[in-house]
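Consider the following assembly input.
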Amino acid sequence: MLTHLSATAFRNLEALDVEVGPGRHLILGTNGAGKTSLLEAIYLLATTRSFRTPRIADCVRHGESSFRVLCETAERQKLEVFLDAGQRERRVNGERTSLADHLAALPVVCWTASEGEVLTGAPTERRRFMDRGVLGLRPVALEVMSRYRHALDGKKELLKSGWVDPVQLSVWTDLQARAAAELSALRATYVEQLSAGLAELLEAADLGLPEVKLKYRPSPSEAIDGVEAVRGALEQAQAKEIELKQPLLGPQRDDLSIRWVGREGESRAVKRVASAGERKALGLALLLAHGQVLQGRNVEPVVLLDDVDAELDPERWSRLWTLVGRHLQILVTSARPAVWEHLEIDHRWQVESGRVRRG
Amino acid sequence: MLSDVNTPSSLDPLSKLVRELSRLPGIGQKTAARLAHHLLRVTEDDARTLAQAIVEVKEKLFHCEVCNSITDRQPCSYCSDPERDRTKICVVEEPFNIPAIERTREHQGLYHVLLGTLSPQRGIGPRELGVDRLMDRLTGVDEVILATNPDVEGEATALYLARLIKPKGIRVSRLAFGMPVGGDIEFTDEVTLGRSLAGRRAL
């Protein structure tokens, strides 16, 4: 949980230095006032990345050369992210720790405008979604992911070169298989937990949505049966990979299938049949289910919801809101004060032209 | 002339020093500037001693033609030492890995320095590493210890060498990885701790 937040030269925010209490925070303001920047600062502290831009220098206030954001958590950890000579720097309690340790210090769950892409976007969105979930539960997975990426890159280069030394190729396939088996096991476990959390949440919220079935689709399909099975499948594909000069199988091709289940047990892909409002409700439910999975593992995430009430049926939203959980710290931005009139809120903030104040 | 702006001769001596220092591994612009300003303050004698030491290592040291380690004579002191066990070769990535292993006094055999790792990304294959030269040294050897780093490239290199060497009936071993001895679980980073857990053994 976040207890203190400060920001200097960050986006359009005026110098910020505030205490943040537990509970549900509503941040109101017109578009462009700086609401999203406030959430972005917290997200950046927690993950060292921005949800708006891959170019961290974009976060520097116009006319300044660097920014600094700082926060303190309930566990009395001080997190800091800043730009130094154009380079991103991060600190936990004044020291540069491993990224895994940094990520573990302030777990977040975040909804932004692009979040709906998990349902409608390309498989890469769903892999990213799964990996964020995996990392929330197991920061150590970062090492597995980077090891897999590295092994895959090595194999890619070998295949691309055209002539392939069979011993070298088998070595890189072996490394790929080992990391793939670990990564698939992590993703499979996460999807299983998420699926259970989602079912529970949908039943309790009564959103008028059909039953949802989540299924992890690994590549190769044997991936969750262990290293030997993955290695076998990769070796079978090898001749084809050499011919096409690129890797064809592996977690870089994984997907997560998200389907409605009808009364007769028949299932249909959500992205093809759901309305925009239903997709948004389900996307949010997925995110909140992820929050519950974390809580189940005694991780208390800070929940960031950006402009969450846009396009969402107020009835559905108020039902979800009651389920978000009283004991979590939640920061939600909105440009529509009316939506919140009858909802329970613990703290209110106003953002106007980059100035953040209570009330 | 505009094109001369960045040639070494047109830079003032301080900028030149900063630029040369910043080309060293692990030294960024800021550290380079700090080092350069430090060197500006030392006595001329100290500056000369440092400059000489740098030139001397280039003039007097070279790679051993047998094992690639850094030496001032051919072959190096490890390869020419009659006391060392010629049936064991420890393979490392870089010459600076040898002193670390020597300090343990656990390895009395010979060394072989690869001067790198397999890396398709950087176009380094078995030929660039001179793997053939290592293979030529294996007559009379009964164990090869692969002490490459535990990262992906080091692991790939070890696996590759193991596949070539094992069929010759030679024992191949790999360094074990895990927690530092005397390390406190609380202060071990999560990745190392995770790997130590994954590689745990029964007692």
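Residues 18 and 33 of chain B are 5 Å apart (CA to CA). Ask yourself how this observation constrains the way the partners meet.
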